[in-house]
Amino acid sequence: MADEPLSIPLADLRRSFDLVLRHIEAATPGDTVALDKDYFWSVPTEGLYDVYRAPDELTIGQLSESWQHLTDLLAEPDRAVGYHLVWLADVLRAIGQDIAA
């Protein structure tokens, strides 16, 4: 375990995301990303970062549901909550695993 928390400058996070998004745009024909999988295994938050024990349970997540939360956010930006990052991460992980190069 790290002695101090990982500090991530928000400006660097934004720049990193922009660079990766540009890569996705360059690697993708057209202006949409097609994902052929929908359901995925998810580790509940309580066990996600306890790497010294196997998770007690796995749950099932759904990319289309995570994406729906994000499109709902686009319609109502004032309703943003921190968990939108988790839903975004679900979608980004699937894209990242699909776009290998």
TrEMBL record:
It comes from the Bacteria. This is Uncharacterized protein.
